[in-house]
Amino acid sequence: MLKQLKNLLPINIFKKQNTKNDLNRSGNPNFLIEPNKINKVLREIEATFLLCTVQVDGSKRSYGTSILKIESATNTIVLDELIPKEGNVLLQEKKALKLSTFHQGLHLAFNLSHIESGIENGVTYYKAPLPERIFYPQRRKSPRVKVSLMDLSFSGIAQGGTLVRGHVFDLSQEGAGINVNFPMHTDPIQRGDKLKKCQIVFDNFTMSFDFLVYLVKPLATGSSKVQIGGLFENISSKNQSKLENFITSVELTEIRKRRKTRTP
What is the pLDDT of residues 207-228, one digit of tens each? Predict the structure, then answer.
């Protein structure tokens, strides 16, 4: 069974989103309501292992999960267990949640109810009817930019003191996707691990932070190279500001390139 992500969210990346009221406004033009479009978006999220944030009534804390499967025959969605694990007890009691994530740089959210739980290979999973609508405003909230060609170096300390090095391929204000070379014959990185004293170098600036891992994906069988995704933690306001400015500059550069290609 796929096990994807971890999301303790010490800083709730969705705290500025007022989706609670929006989700109850059926006339909102920012909703997807056509079943085919809903199915398409959810399948894209499933295929890209996107980080999803869950909120359950009765808790002020946010939890992490991922979409494991969209079952078209039964019009159901299957979610991975919640992280931290205490969220599972609450969800099994409430049987309803609100799920939020970013898809192609755009924030989306939807409610699920009548949730059933099950266990496969010792791992809890959840199944619910597909949402009837998805709140999906077509404006960017936290863009993710591709930086694989920019050779942005990464380093961090894994549990046990192992030095991990790699290169960033994907970057946002909240986190990053990184291809790392993990030394063989050491404990592998797992979702939920926290890499300490991490650094990413861009524009002659070294950004320091801790990194909470929510996705681990081997790049090749038997290889020491893995792809990890996660969230920044313990990042200073100065580092956050530098990161936001860098992402903005990358986006502007891409816009200029697209304009040039359109120019006759």
Answer: 999 998 877 887 766 667 888 8
**Dihedral angle computed from the Cα positions of residues 153, 159, 162 and 165, in that order, rounded to the nearest 10 degrees:** -10
- The HSE-up count of residue 96 (CA atoms within 13 Å, CB side) is 6
At 210, list the tokens: 């801790």
Question: How far from 30 is each of 22, 39, 135, 140, CA to CA, in Å?
Answer: 9, 16, 6, 13
The pLDDT value recorded for residue 190 is: 79
| Calpha distance 143→104 (Å, rounded) | 8
Return the residue matching tokens 């950004």: 207
β-pairing, 205-218 vs 52-55, is unpaired
pLDDT at residue 258 greater than cutoff 70: yes
CA 170 – CA 148 distance, rounded (Å): 7
The values of phi and psi at residue 131, to 5°, are: -65, 145
- What string of DSSP letters covers 63-106? EEE-EEEEETTTTEEEEEPPBSTHHHHHHHHH-EEEEEEEETTE
Tokens of 101: 């994530």
The SS3 call for residue 125 is strand
Place of tokens 């079952």: 71
User: Average pLDDT of the chain?
Assistant: 82
pLDDT band at 255 (very low <50, low <70, confident <90, very high): confident
